[in-house]
Design a protein that fits this description.
The complex is a heterodimer. By secondary structure, chain A is mainly beta. In chain A, 0% of the residues lie in helices and 57% in strands. Chain A has no helices and eleven strands. In chain A, the strands form two sheets. In chain A, strands 2, 4, 5, 6, 9, 10 and 11 form a seven-stranded mixed beta sheet that branches. Chain B starts with a strand and ends with a strand. Chain B is mainly β. Classes of the chains: A mainly beta, B mainly beta. At the A-B interface, strand 5, strand 9 and strand 10 of A face strand 5, strand 6 and strand 11 of B.
Chain lengths: 112, 113
Amino acid sequence: ETGVTQTPRHLVMGMTNKKSLKCEQHLGHNAMYWYKQSAKKPLELMFVYSLEERVENNSVPSRFSPECPNSSHLFLHLHTLQPEDSALYLCASSQDEGQPQHFGDGTRLSIL
Amino acid sequence: AQSVAQPEDQVNVAEGNPLTVKCTYSVSGNPYLFWYVQYPNRGLQFLLKYITGDNLVKGSYGFEAEFNKSQTSFHLKKPSALVSDSALYFCAVRETGGFKTIFGAGTRLFVKA
């Protein structure tokens, strides 16, 4: 148990669907992250929120839309995705810049 | 710009032998350095970090890492490998004053019984 919970664990969707990924942390951390992990590629940072404010947006396509309503919850809204978006999406949190990140177990996303 | 290199896609070692997983980095200021491990169908788990202080850092599960500023390296080591250490290992670097962490491509460690 890492203290970071992601739901759902698996998601299959068509390219025209709209879905959301959810992340919740119970560690009292003030920063939350979305990463994309694809086979044979390095971990890609997508978004960073610090104190509920987006501080990093790594040139992510607009079909991915993050939302951070409070310091414990982070969402990734998905719409009109492409087959190349199939990947493991990982959420993480940390207390501050010098501290390690705590990761959830990810959502395995498959786009049909 | 900060970057991390893990030159080996895979490391093979026999159980009981010492292991080393290599990492080199590039960052403009003083780095925060991390090692993480990932088991199948799981997220990354923190192993150890270097912020400042002693160059030899001890972490979870008997792992340690040596910070070498002149060679800009942060190699992960363990004196005696276990089969259960078989997993994917990531080195990561973060510049001071920011939240952006750059991860290496990962090294798969295979420990043979």
